[in-house]
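Q: Given only this backbone (147 positions), what sequence would you predict?
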């Protein structure tokens, strides 16, 4: 069995930036020369998410609205109360409890079957990174296992 790994880095534009990374993953699959196995794509952050879904603008707007209903930025979050919070604090800490709460609706990784050198995606499926916080550099790791 072979294993190939790659980290892709990109800059998100801000809250609810849906970034289609399908072609980057496909390109790495082709480079790997692994024909049959699994492709795992893992988000390296807790205030963003990965999904496999349709990259259609009106559907993306629907998703944004539903996510905002679930965890609106306007609510009060204990995570944002720096008077009582004592763990995982940075000097430039940002109030982003809403982003973390939105992220619990989605998984931190997606795994796809690789058959005959092709990721098994349905007709309308795309691999999308969703920024749930502010603009920043983000990383996603790809690991391919197979023969």
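A: Predicted residues:
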């Amino acid at each position: 069995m072979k294993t190939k790994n790659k980290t892709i880095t990109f800059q998100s534009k801000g809250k609810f930036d849906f970034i289609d990374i399908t072609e980057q993953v496909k390109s790495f699959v082709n480079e790997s020369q692994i024909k049959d196995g699994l492709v795992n794509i893992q988000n390296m952050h807790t205030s963003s998410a990965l999904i496999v879904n349709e990259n259609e603008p009106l559907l993306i707007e629907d998703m944004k609205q539903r996510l905002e209903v679930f965890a609106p930025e306007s609510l009060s979050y204990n995570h944002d109360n720096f008077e009582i919070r004592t763990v995982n604090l940075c000097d430039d800490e940002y109030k982003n409890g809403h982003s973390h709460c939105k992220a619990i609706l989605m998984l931190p990784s997606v795994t796809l079957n690789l058959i005959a050198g092709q990721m098994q995606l349905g007709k309308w499926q795309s691999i999308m990174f969703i920024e749930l916080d502010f603009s920043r550099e983000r990383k996603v790791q790809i690991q391919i296992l197979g023969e």
